[in-house]
Amino acid sequence: MSDYISDSKSSSSVQENHTIEYTGTAGKLFPIVLLNLFLTIITLGIYRFWAKTNIRKYMWGETKFDGEPFEYTGTGGELFVGALIVFVAFIIPLSVGLSFLLMSYPVIAPFIVLGLYPFLIFLMGVAIYRAQMYRMSRTNWRGIRGAQLKGSSTYGWLSLKYIVLYLITFGLIAPYIICRLWNFLMNNKRFGSGVMSSDAKSKPLFKIWILTWLASIIVFGGIMFLLITALTTNDIGMILFSYLLLFVASVVISVWFQAALYNHLISSLSYQNMKFDFNVSVGKFLTFSIVNMLILIFTLGLGAPFIMQRWTRFFCEEITFTGQIDFAEINQSPETGPEFGEGLVEAFDMG
Amino acid sequence: MKVEAHYTDGLTAERHVIEVNITSEGIILPSGVRWDYADIELMSSDKTDGRLIYKNKELDGPGLSLVFEQGMNDPARDYLRRISKKLTNDSSWHLVRWQVITGAAIIGLMFVFYALYPYANRAIVAVIPDSWAMKAGDWVLDSLYTEYSANTCRSDAGDKALEKLVQGVQMKGLPYDLRVQVVEHNQVNALTAPGGRIVILNGLLQESESAGELAGIVAHEAGHVYYKHPMQGLVNILGFSIVGSFFGGDAASIAVVALSMSYSRDMERQADKKALETLTENNISASGILGFFERMNKKDKDSVAAELQKLFSTHPLSEERMSYIADHIEENESGKDFTSLLTDQEWQDLKDICKSSDES
């Protein structure tokens, strides 16, 4: 194939930065969502695996790196079988076992259920990680596959360990936990033979987290006091006002930390020689979050795919890259990923 | 027709600029390899620059992105469109069609599941050990008694009469011994729990006018025991709640209720049939239970609530059920003599079984 001209040769003269853009619009997404909704309803929900796949195929295709789209190669059938396997292997034995326990040992059964919690948290970690394994392996760009290397049980253990740590520090340790989990997840991502890496340090996040933490206690404490007073005096106007305040506060109060967190986490990423940079202002993030919330409320949750699209566009617009990737060096990934997808995550209703 | 293309070989992420030849059979690459149209899948089409991105379904990895100098109006693009609208994304109907087919296939499978479900249920019930069934029955009744704070009625004479009545309704091949109790409750109903436990509510006992009527009801409940219906019902409740969770959504839970109701109507029919056989075998007339049903039917004919109940009840007093019993009587009972199961005194003792426990 000597007659092929490769772009990498010509690109040595001009070093333009890599770009990512999202070209999807609400108008393109709408018919997909509508048909999905209809088929999901008439199949009593079973179509949701295919619906999810349709949305992904569309969104991946509208996301373009250096002008070329990603491709989602997963199928609804894979998601369905994945969910069915988890259903038969976990949900049915667990439900039947628990009913039997409750029937036979009504006194001690609740304690056994309590003892299941650590196991469930571990399993949730495994679920999140395995879903990434599936999604990465079904993501192509220029015919090259992504991959999430094996590591789901380690991730499960990390989740369990950090939840305990989170509880005994009353949540103060959160930035450390988030960074560690993020780094583990990202450092195990590949695209082709190219390596993703992340070195997010939690130190710069602690100041803003502790301020957020203290502010939440004061603000939510204040609103709770207001609410309890209103409830005891039966002041309807005051009750509604308190709930509204609670709602607004929960969006607003965390926005500084969230913006800082996203900026920090994404900016700590790199792929081969290409560094990610994400720098969104608090104001912009606040407007973005409020609009998302309003869409979700006014569409009674049916707008979720549009929110997903907004997030994708948001990320694509705000991310910038520096440094060059030598595409000739990126070989096809040796990993082919799991055969079926995301059943566990589906079981926890986190998909 | 020659067109500039970007080619990726699936081995590296490098993009090669090549010139391809678009022919009537397929797209020919400079290497001489031909991508047949049948193997080509349109991955993406860009309306702004008219670019089309293809992949080859037969090859894992390689991708071809055709660059049209004149955008949407390029002659090469036109040529492709004429070969198949799928190639240029001018008709997205084929995508919609596949989705509708998928939806229809799912619904078809749901019907298969619906048809096969009763067999699966019976298979599960068959492997549940009797000791579990007894335990489950005790558990169901215990929780019912607690919920309605109902007490079991007992008196020496009443117990003896009840025992005699139950002994008089011998059903062959029962999986468990029958354990029949009368419970202090005003509702006109009887129920069967797993493990052969039958509960007659006092309301029903008071409504029945003869031992023959009550015997018919006991035979019906024994019919449920014979087929292990209560255990099937329990497996249904558990099974449907599990399966329902896989389906997800409110529509699913409504469908599940409708489904379980249609199964339970089949169960009533089975129990009726078995009860009538048993009554004939034990030389008891079915006219007792028929009379009882007719009285109940007349009683709540006028109320809307009763009409609704008929629709949703698992014990529907349908015309179909009554004519079924009437047919049985006509076929099997003409010219036969029947003796009463209990003496008048015994019947009175049984009817008073809850009274004496009130006094004690």
Describe the structure.
The complex is a heterodimer of chains A (351) and B (360). Chain A has 351 residues and is of the alpha+beta class. Chain A has helices at residues 7-10, 26-42, 48-62, 76-104, 109-137, 152-168, 174-187, 203-233, 236-252, 255-267, 282-298, 304-318, 343-347, and strands spanning 5-6, 20-22, 63-65, 68-72, 139-141, 144-148, 189-191, 194-198, 269-271, 274-278, 319-322. Chain A is built from 13 helices and 11 strands. The longest helix of chain A is centred in the middle third of the chain and has 31 residues, at 203-233. The radius of gyration of chain A is 23 Å and the shape is globular. Chain B is of the alpha+beta class. Chain B has helices spanning 75-83, 85-88, 93-127, 130-148, 156-168, 202-207, 211-226, 229-247, 250-281, 287-299, 304-312, 319-332, 344-351, 353-359; strands spanning 2-8, 16-22, 26-28, 34-36, 40-45, 52-56, 63-67, 152-153, 179-183, 190-193, 197-201. In chain B, the strands form 2 sheets. A 7-stranded antiparallel β-sheet of chain B has the order 4-3-2-1-7-6-5. Chain B has a 4-stranded mixed β-sheet with strand order 8-9-11-10. In chain B, strand 2 and strand 3 form a beta hairpin. The N and C termini of chain B lie far apart (104 Å). The mean pLDDT of chain B is 82. At the A-B interface, strand 1, helix 2, helix 3, strand 4 and helix 4 of A face strand 1, strand 2, helix 3, helix 4 and helix 8 of B. Strand 1 (5-6) of chain A pairs antiparallel with strand 2 of chain B, so a sheet runs across the interface.
Number of helices of chain B: 14
Whole-number average pLDDT of chain B?
A: 82
CA radius of gyration of chain A: 23 Å
**Helix/strand/pairing category of chain B:** alpha+beta
Overall geometry of chain A: globular
Please outline the major beta sheet of chain A: 10 strands, antiparallel
Distance between the termini of chain B: 104 Å
Main structural class of chain A: alpha+beta
Strand content of chain A: 5-15%
**Hey, roughly how much beta strand do the residues of chain B contain?**
5-15%
Q: What is the count of helical runs of chain A?
A: 13
| Stretches with pLDDT under 50, minimum 5 residues of chain A | 8-13
- Spatial order of the strands forming the largest sheet of chain B: 4-3-2-1-7-6-5
* Residue share in helix of chain A: 55-70%
Helical percentage of chain B: 55-70%
Most extensive chain interface and residues per partner: A-B, 48 and 45 residues
Q: For the terminal residues of chain A, how far apart are their CA atoms?
A: 44 Å
